[in-house]
Design goal:
It is built from 19 helices and twelve strands. β1, α1 and β2 form a beta-alpha-beta unit. With 501 residues, it is α/β, with parallel strands linked by helices.
């Protein structure tokens, strides 16, 4: 039983690059769906890469984490390409050039984006309305996007409430009382239309980029967080799917228990799913999330896959994750339902961390590929699950694994190598078969391993140090900002060609 994949073992060897959309060297402060994205796809294709792996593309909030989005369905308006709006006559280059989006081309300045990008986009919306036909186009788009109304109303209400989370709104709005919503409908009509317009234009730009990638032989691999952010349109509009009390407060929250690396465990704080209730209605909310992912991506990585087998529940209000208990989830029934529906998306399972027998059984049952992170592979444990072998060239020898040098939560390969102890370096050198040109030689060895897909973060291809790390878990600032500079694109392509030789 699988979704968009095969358990036959007859795999195709593929290679890819992990590059967040926000890290592209686009104009105006952040990576977008415009020219830099098309150029990046072209470079991948020319160098022999067939996968572009990205991070979640949802609307980000406090902390700017793509894993804490205001919506499981909407795309991030920051990714809307301003130059393409200029081509449509909705903005002028002079207007875009006059705005301060930050002075460092190697880092996203989210504060300036938040302050300065939306006034420009509102100008584009006003001009689109003046041209005529925009409201009719939005109405047609909404027929294909059943989530759009809830997202737009939620976002407009959040603006009206000064950015406060929905669970702190006035009681009627918090509880979605029809009379309370009706009373503010006219007041927020412009903002609702604006956010629908943004999603329509994002859909247009995404579709064109996706078509271009497919024509170039590059598949986009998306990323889906298992949990939804508490302050999100998901929890506000579809709260029956979560373990909330009658006032919309979580009964328990997500996390992971204490381990060798963290004595207090990790307290994520996301609301937990009401799995028995979801099962009764055929997992309608999760099926909507998967259908949306299938619209956007050819391949889908699902974060924290072990949570579909069993999940760790921490009492709401706890200061850490020391006290909690494991509960059974309904992943097997969910993915059976998804397979029956025939969703055309291949799924990759992020099966990292402490993996128990129930997780292994679920992974085997689904046929999804698991992950290996090579920065974790080089210790003295011969049974290390992140170890792999050189591929002998036979398709039947490929394993249903995805080998990463590192993920968005790891430091770069160069920084890892420079800080590795001598024993780790000796094991890695034996694996690479050389002591020369490390860690690039190690990356070439990983590229030739028996995993059916090898993925290299763009910062590793560039041989960047710790300054290019995407995220440091358990820290609240300084993350999700790294960008490739425009003058680094030739170096990226040259290194990628050498890597794939």
């Amino acid at each position: 039983m699988t979704v968009g994949s095969s358990m036959s073992g007859n795999y195709t060897r593929r290679r890819g690059v992990l590059m967040p959309v926000f890290s592209l060297p686009s104009e105006y402060g952040i990576g977008t769906l415009g020219k830099a994205a098309y150029d990046f796809v072209d470079r991948l294709s020319e160098c022999g890469a067939s996968i572009w792996a990205i991070l979640p593309t949802g609307v980000t909030g406090y902390g700017d984490s793509p894993y804490q989005s205001f919506s499981s369905f909407a795309l991030n308006p920051y990714f809307l390409d301003l130059a393409m709006l200029c081509d449509e006559g909705l903005l002028t280059k002079e207007e875009c050039d006059s705005v301060d989006f930050g002075s460092d081309p190697s880092a996203v300045d989210y504060g300036r984006l938040y302050e300065n990008r939306f006034p420009l986009l509102m100008t584009a919306y006003a001009r689109a309305i003046e041209k005529g036909g925009t409201m009719e186009s939005i109405a047609e788009f909404e027929k294909t996007a059943p989530w759009l109304e809830d997202h737009a109303v939620f976002t407009a209400l959040k603006q009206m409430q000064g950015g406060r989370p929905w669970y702190e709104w006035d009681e009627g709005l918090k509880m979605r009382d029809p009379a309370a919503l009706g009373a503010v409908r006219e007041k927020i009509a412009c903002e609702v239309g604006f956010h629908k317009f943004l999603q329509m234009k994002l859909a247009e730009q995404w579709a064109k980029l996706s078509d271009h990638a497919l024509k170039k032989g590059v598949l986009i691999m998306g990323d889906l967080p298992i949990y939804c952010a508490y302050d999100s349109a998901d929890c506000w509009a579809y709260r029956e799917n979560f373990l909330f009390d009658k006032d919309g407060r979580p009964v328990e929250v997500a996390g992971v228990p204490p381990d060798y690396f963290c004595e207090d465990g990790q307290l994520w704080g996301n609301p937990l799913y009401d799995w028995p209730r979801m099962k009764k209605d055929g997992f309608s909310f999760w099926m909507a999330r998967l259908r949306r992912a299938a619209e956007l991506y050819s391949i889908l990585r699902i974060d924290h896959f072990r949570g579909f087998a069993s999940y760790y529940a921490v009492p709401a209000g706890a200061k850490n994750a020391k006290i909690g208990e494991w509960r059974k989830a309904e992943g097997r029934a969910l993915f059976k339902k998804a397979a029956e529906e025939g969703l055309p998306v291949e799924i990759i399972a992020e099966d990292l961390g402490f993996i128990t027998r129930d997780v292994k059984l679920l992974l085997a049952n689904t046929g999804f590929a698991g992950m290996q992170v090579m920065e974790f592979a080089f210790d003295s444990d011969r049974k290390n699950p992140h170890r792999n072998k050189r591929w002998d060239g036979r398709p039947e020898s490929l394993r249903n694994k995805i080998a990463y040098t590192g993920t968005h939560d790891n430091t770069t390969m160069l920084d890892w190598w420079e800080n590795a102890d001598e024993e780790t370096k000796r094991i890695a050198e034996r694996y690479a078969g050389t002591k020369e040109d490390m860690p690039f030689s190690l990356m070439k060895a990983i590229m030739n391993c028996d995993a059916r897909l090898a993925v290299f973060p763009a910062a590793d291809v560039l041989m960047k140090g710790a300054e290019a790390r995407i995220n440091t878990p358990a820290t609240e600032t300084g993350n999700w900002t790294w960008r490739m500079r425009p003058d680094e694109t030739d170096l990226f392509a040259g290194n990628l060609k050498k890597l794939f030789e």
